[in-house]
Amino acid sequence: MAVESILVVDDEPLVRDLLNEVLKREGYRVTLVKDGHSALKRIKENHFDLVVTDVKMPGLDGLTLLKEIKKVSPSTFVMVITAYGSIEDAVQAMKEGACDYLTKPVIPDQIKIAIQKISQYQNLLRENRYLKSEIDHIYRNKQLIGESPPMKRVYRMIAKAAPTKSTVLIYGETGTGKELVAREIHNISPRKRRPFIKVNCAALPEDLLESELFGYEKGAFTGALEKKEGRFELADTGTILLDEISETSFNFQAKLLRVLQEREFERVGGTRTIKVDVRVIATTNMDPLEAVKKGKLREDLYYRLNVIPISLPPLRERKEDIPLLVNYFLKKYDSQDGRKLKEVTPECLEMMSRYHWPGNVRELENAVQRAIVVSEGNYITPRDLFLQINNDDAISEFPFDFSDATLEEMEKRLIQYTLRKVAGNRTRAAEILGVSVRTIRNKIKKYHLT
After folding, report:
1. Which of 133, 149, 360, 372 lies 20 to 30 A from 48 at CA?
2. DSSP bridge partners of 200
3. Confidence class of residue 4 from pLDDT cuts 50, 70 and 90?
4. 394-446 belongs to which CATH class?
């Protein structure tokens, strides 16, 4: 129910009593005042979703009250009540920003229908705010890429989780695509046409995180000039993603635990319990059990979140997906400038397959985007990647059998292999092998390397 609190302003006691009885029976919180000055005072003290006001009143009339309400509480809807012979007042009120009008005598069914329409309109406004926040993501939309066995296991878990209402805990290193998995679960679930709300728990301090998730009432703290719905309310009937949940405090986790158990909460500064139907997906860049042991995640919250666990593999464990990912990122970024699509040399792909990728898919995406910009011609070469290759990356899978090789032959092969991995960059080869550039230069000459 979008409309919750209603302020009734009328100088006729019978009208006030009638509206009070009708509206309370429908479940609204109703406040009654008999004049415009009293109404304005109440509005400055508390937030009301809707004001129902008479036009003709002594002192501050309804039209003047309407103008003042729009100044102090722009999000409050105003409905005016006018006598049958004063339709021109109603027309003027609509011009001033009233959402609807009723004529006296007030008929209960009419006002119930009118408020229902206002609630529907408020829901549309809420969905519109959500859609606007998602536009940027839609234009930057990514998709899950990969055919490796680890990714196929992830796909199977997504397919099992999506049709259910169960809470999902996605864990994996930074850059592995946890948000993409969460969105995919939502997009193929029965809630796919409902909101998908993301909250970056690591980016907000505890007090702001609480008000962001649960909302707040007017006057709850300095700067709370109007009531604000929280992310859980915006996600009602949809899905909420709690990103990096292990970065929150134990105090906040205790409050979140109650929401997960009861699917209800109170806004900051409020006392009314709000019930929601929300599918919760949480992520963490730590192993959940390790997070519990290190005191980063409450054990009871872990069991509540870990209904359907999905572990995302790091890129180093699914290197067979690198060519697919590179091709996807090439099309994504290279085509933006309307140029001929660049290609990646075999040496470049081989270097990528040897690299450790501590930043995972996100690092690979950045590397490809950067290489497109700095490369010359139609090909991307190893030197365009600027990868910081260490000894383990370069020679952990050295493809030679040294069992019957002489010391000089081993040295020659090692230097030749390292130079090839760094596209002939002697400085990088020297760093990897732990020798001077002069030594590399002399060895190249000695062994006639190219």
Report:
1. 133
2. 243
3. confident
4. mainly alpha
